[in-house]
Amino acid sequence: MTAPETGGTASLWHDRRFNRFWAGQSISELGDRITELALPLIAVTALNASANQVAWLTALIWTPHLLAFLLGAWVDRRAHQRRLMVLADLVRGSVLLTLPAAYLLDAVSLGQLYAVAVLTGAAAVLFNTAYPPFFVRLVPRSAYIEANSRLSASRSVSHVIGPAVGGGLVHTLTAPVAVIADALSYLASAFLIGRIPLDEPPTAGAGTGAGGTTDPSLLRRAREGMTLIGRNPVLRAGLCCAATVNFFTFAAGSGLMVLFATRDLDLSPGAIGLALGTGATGAFLGAVLAPKISRHIGVGRSIMVGAVLFPAPIAIAAVAHGPLWARAGALAAAEFLSGVGVMLFDINLNSLRTSVIPDGMRSRVAGAFSTLNYGIRPIGAITGGLLATAFGLRATLLISATGGMLSLLWLLASPIPRIHSLTPDDTATPHTTQDTTDPDPYPAPS
């Protein structure tokens, strides 16, 4: 069962259920920005971590996504995906609270940072695989881009405010104590999501399905998600493009960028936070303009523009030099342009994916997509660490910018450039409206 179709998107402003979810995600995103700055700073400043160790910290956050295809198959069989999202938030908040506790005992270690990265990453996988069926019950198809735009706008605002707030908290309270803010944000998100009244029909039992058929194994259900992506030209091209751009942007990921800004650009934590926060206004602008741009040039072309504009500006930071204002300004400019690009890419691609995935397959496809798209991120991060060790941070950033732009090639050979809107007629390409594997014995309730 999906949310009822509406003729427009204005109703979202008056939809209490969506606004409650939006508020929870906005609070959580703000906390995340603090931790994204604090974790690598703990490693760099308190533990004197090397570039390779910082890269491993980034990699471990994303490593649990390698098993997302299995978790997605499991989540598709569960009723009440909202409860799984609440559980994921509670786990993340609890794990983060171990850092200030260890700090008070003077026991913070690199091993603990790695454990926090893995556990919070695993909880994120659970949240993200339970999210797609929740989203389609919450938001009507006609409002997919608008809803994703608002959620992304909140994320971009968090990138504006979060680094500055995070830099201030780290400077005032130290990095381990600053992550308390993120832990509390997850608790707030869990509370708000848990209070959303949402019809979540029960799924079939775990042992038998419709007509008494035997429940296929977890691996088979996971494979069906993978198969659908492989046979669906829109999902396949979108995944290949996203995985490519993620590989290269994570080779220059936030950890190495913070390290580069600290050691090569000689910027203080406060200056880094201010530059990243100022530059992140580009993400807000991109999120606000994404619906208008997609209506003007089409959903597919918006994805293509974003695929190039997202990674290319990394090169601006790589060539930064000169006085303090020029170095900080280059970092801010790179963040601004990249923010515009990532919002054009994410909002339109996520909405397009949602519109072509059949009900009953959403968590499986999301899990399969995450396994490849997010699973490539730790590989990219580790590669970035090796490149930085061998060739230096500046060279690594230039390689990342160039390689990321090549992701466009996947889109050019696909139907995506010709898709203008999310109407069924526009998105109807072979294998986009039905499962191409064996018939699913457990169709989504309707």
From TrEMBL:
Organism: Streptomyces yaizuensis
InterPro entries linked: Bacilysin_exporter_BacE_put, MFS, MFS_dom, MFS_trans_sf
Official protein name in the record: MFS transporter
Sequence ranges of Low complexity compositional bias: 424-436
Membrane topology: Multi-pass membrane protein
CDD domains: MFS_MefA_like
Domain of life: Bacteria
Alphabetical keyword list: Cell membrane, Membrane, Transmembrane, Transmembrane helix
Region (Disordered): 422-446
Bilayer-spanning residue ranges: 54-74, 86-105, 111-131, 234-261, 267-290, 302-320, 326-345, 365-387, 393-413
Main location: membrane
SUPFAM superfamilies tied to this protein: MFS general substrate transporter (SSF103473)
Pfam families, alphabetized: MFS_1
Cellular compartment(s): Cell membrane
Residue span(s) of domain Major facilitator superfamily (MFS) profile: 178-446
